[in-house]
Design a protein that fits this description.
By secondary structure, the chain is mainly beta. 9% of the residues lie in helices and 36% in strands. A five-stranded mixed β-sheet has the order 2-8-7-4-5, with no helix packed on it. A hairpin with a 5-residue loop joins strand 33 and strand 34.
Length: 790
């Protein structure tokens, strides 16, 4: 069997082999199990939300990043992403199926009447993620405020009630040796209590050591443990004393793992005590160093001393979380220690930002001089007031990619560990990993079936089962819809079903399937149709993430109007579609019509009527450019020959004042279309061209002798990509807007050839902060920029 190893582990192996014995991976059953478990690829998903606190009536804008867990690059294996919003009782409020392109997607949820004041969980996951136990999915809490229910936003009153936990390094407190113990102190809201001082005392009230927590309530201390001593911890917080038992049993026998960081090196110690040393000298223990994709395994024998010390160069191991797991002679895991390697994580920041005003608009330009714009990139930017209190998110693209999937619990403000990285941040992160205990890899549940039950998904698969034996040799046509070109399928090898794969129907799209028989007649398919997936699968997790840590103060009444509820359901992006038809039977009729030479006549064939569901799709394919005026929903037809307000449109020889009723007008009803691009004979009103639309007396779908396709209503389709609209407020410079207003959201920005990104926003009345995240090849873009505006 070939063993999977990361090449960068090789130097680490050289360091360890000198004291740990010879590598003998083929002798280990645990290695076989682990190798099979990590052999399947993994994905990690992250949502960059435009903020964490929303006012009812606003929109939740998000950009999804789906990355390969191993190489930290965009995943190309999955196109289907499920995004859901649940309340804290795990009742689903809204769900979407989102199409992912090159690992990137974006969309919008409207915070409408389905939401009440309170907290909600937003989740994102792929079907493939459901095969594994590790938390590779995304799960974050957001807050919704209903101004009709909450007249004031008050700073919460938190009782001085704290909880403290003390967790020894690698999971054991061993008698007679120096142990490192992690500390985490939380308030009654579940958040860390910063700058807390504590003392470790024995049963005689003698102070043995002391500690102070950092700004996230995390710290550590060293203790020479003794089985004969009862330990407790005294903490003073807000002028009140608290006493906690240490809560850990001092073990008489055992082995612990400990690590210490010093600049570019990691010092690793495998330590036992004198009581244990004599009993394990002839016994083999196993140390596995792994990160979920690569590994090294080695024998450990204590020969001359109860301590084995070695050094690891950080540039020889993978970036991110690495895990040391120690197994006894029966291959049972007995200790585990995680450590984090910052080496190899490339974080790019904007080195220059400028803003230029034009009327009521502001152009903001960001420059990233160290990026390679030729590599695949995407940047998402949330623009909020500088004093915002609504961006209290715990996660970032970096923390969700490199940290969270390897841990069991949710981390408070995990963004902190990737901002302005220095020795203190490295020290704080190491203390955090001590308090997390064992990693997310469950050694008792590492067996995967030969065929994983939840496959990668790329679009919706349509399976047509042929009921009539006489149709087995016919050709079946799945007709065009939006981005999906027609598909032609025919059975083979005696199969009684056909498969149309990689379909991306949107919103309320139906599908139409025809059958072409031997004489080349276009007929209804007469299939029994199944689609996969047909429902949004459930993500089996009932854990609520940490709520946003809001630091509210008492402010004046919410003196604002609820943001406008934009109805975007009827807005869609139209792409040009060119279809070559084999059934152009109406061409002769068009030529026979007595029409002037400057008028082009289009007689849609039956295949055209199935290929293009709606009139505007057909006209766009024929270069009658169509767009929809905002709010009015009027269709504007243009020949593309010049500027103007649009063509003069006739409907059955009646000039139209408004064209809004032609939105999604079914092609099935169209008899012919006359296109006078120059507008000859139309006078001043026809200067931009004339379009005449004539409908048939009977629809091809309503007359039995003209039915040529079978119509299927899909149980699940992709959500239409919606534009984020900035809400409207009563005031744009009051305290409420400064704390909770939204200025703009840009979900999918691309670098130009000079490494610039330019965004255009409505000129704000207050200073702004840009929260920037993204990817550029194997690098990550992560920074925050504040602009003081004149």
């Amino acid at each position: 069997m070939k063993y999977t190893k990361i090449q960068s582990f090789s130097l680490l192996l050289i360091y360890f082999i000198m004291s740990f014995g010879h590598l003998s991976a083929q002798e280990y059953e645990l290695v076989d199990t682990y190798e099979e478990y990590i052999d399947a690829p993994r994905e990690v998903v992250y949502l960059h939300l435009n903020k964490s606190t929303y006012i009812k009536g606003e929109s939740i804008g998000f950009t999804a990043y789906v990355l390969d867990k191993r190489d930290k690059r965009p995943s190309l294996l999955t196109t289907n992403l499920y995004v859901s919003i649940e309340d804290t009782n795990h009742k689903i409020v809204k769900q979407k199926l989102i199409k992912v392109n090159n690992g990137i997607a974006s969309n919008v949820f409207n915070v409408d009447s389905l939401f009440n004041s309170g907290y909600y969980n937003i989740k994102a996951y792929t079907n493939w993620m459901r095969n594994f136990n590790e938390p590779n999915y995304y799960n974050e809490s957001i807050r919704v405020i209903d101004p009709e229910k909450e007249n004031f936003i008050e700073k919460p009153i938190v009782n001085n009630d704290i909880d403290a936990q003390f967790l020894p390094e690698s999971g054991h407190l061993l008698n007679g040796i120096l142990n490192k113990v992690g500390v985490i102190v939380k308030d009654n809201q579940g958040f860390g209590v910063p700058n807390t001082k504590g003392e470790v005392i024995d049963q005689n009230n003698k102070v043995l050591t002391a500690f102070t927590t950092n700004e996230l309530g995390i710290g550590s201390f060293f203790l020479i443990a003794d089985t004969k001593t009862n330990y407790s911890v005294k903490i003073n917080h807000a002028n009140e004393d608290f006493n906690f038992p240490l809560g850990q049993t001092v073990e008489k026998n055992g082995i612990i793992l400990s690590v210490k960081r010093l600049k570019t090196k990691l010092y690793v110690s495998v330590t036992t005590n004198e009581d244990t040393f004599g009993n394990i000298k002839s016994k083999r223990h196993t140390l596995l160093i792994h990160n979920g994709s690569g590994y090294e395994v080695m024998d450990i024998y204590f020969t001359d001393a109860p301590v084995i010390n070695k050094v690891i160069e950080f540039n020889s191991i993978p970036a991110g979380v690495n895990i040391l797991t120690l197994f006894d002679e029966n291959e049972k895991p007995i200790a585990e220690r995680m450590f984090f390697n910052y080496e190899g994580i490339n974080i790019e920041k904007s080195d220059k930002v400028s803003a230029t005003g034009y009327g009521d608009s502001l152009n903001v330009k960001l420059n990233f001089k160290n990026v390679n714009p030729q590599q695949f990139n995407n940047i998402s930017v949330s623009v909020l007031p500088e004093e915002t209190e609504s961006y209290n998110r715990h996660s970032s693209l970096l923390s969700q990619t490199f940290l969270q999937p390897y841990l069991k619990g949710y981390i408070e403000n995990s963004r902190y560990y990737f901002e302005n990285i220095d020795q203190k941040k490295q020290f704080d992160l190491d203390n955090l990993l001590i308090t997390q205990g064992w990693s997310s890899y469950d050694w008792n549940n590492m067996f995967l079936p030969d065929e994983l039950p939840h496959p990668f998904e790329q679009g919706i698969l349509i399976k047509g089962n042929i009921n009539n034996q006489d149709h087995l040799n016919d050709v079946f046509v799945l007709h065009h819809s939006r981005e999906n070109p027609p598909q032609y399928k025919q059975t083979s090898d005696g199969n009684k079903s056909i498969i149309f794969d990689s379909n991306f129907p949107v919103s309320n799209d139906d599908i139409f399937i025809s059958r072409i028989d031997a004489p080349n007649n276009l007929l209804p398919a007469q299939l029994y149709v199944q689609t996969f997936p047909s429902t949004i699968p459930n993500l089996p997790t009932k854990v609520n993430p940490l709520k946003p840590k809001d630091n509210y103060k008492i402010i004046e009444n919410l003196n604002m109007i609820t943001p406008l509820d934009f109805n975007l359901n009827k807005v869609q992006k139209l792409d040009e579609v060119v279809v070559e038809s084999r059934f152009d039977k109406e061409l002769v009729r068009a030529r026979k019509l007595a029409i002037p030479a400057y008028v082009t006549v289009k007689i849609p064939s039956e295949l055209d009527k199935l290929t293009f569901m709606y009139l505007q799709d057909y006209l766009m394919a024929n270069r009658i450019y169509t767009h929809i005026r905002s709010q009015t929903q009027d269709l504007v037809f243009s020949t593309g020959l010049g500027s103007g307000t649009g063509m003069l449109v006739y409907y059955n020889d009646i000039p139209l004042i408004s064209t809004n009723f032609l939105y999604r007008y079914p092609m099935a009803e169209i008899d012919r279309i006359e296109i006078n691009r120059r507008g000859f004979g139309g006078g001043a009103r026809g200067a931009n061209g004339i379009l005449k639309i004539y409908t048939s007396q009977e629809s091809m779908f309503s007359s039995s002798n003209k039915v040529t396709a079978q119509d299927y209503k899909l149980p699940l389709t992709f959500s239409e990509k919606k534009t984020f609209y900035t809400p409207k407020y009563q005031y744009y410079n009051d305290e409420f807007f400064k704390g909770y207003g939204t200025i703009d959201w840009k979900p999918e920005l691309i670098l130009d050839n000079q490494g610039n990104v330019e965004i255009k926003i409505k000129k704000p009345q207050v200073p702004i902060t840009l929260f920037i995240e993204g990817i550029n090849g194997s690098s990550f873009i992560y920074c925050k920029k504040t602009l003081e505006l004149n």
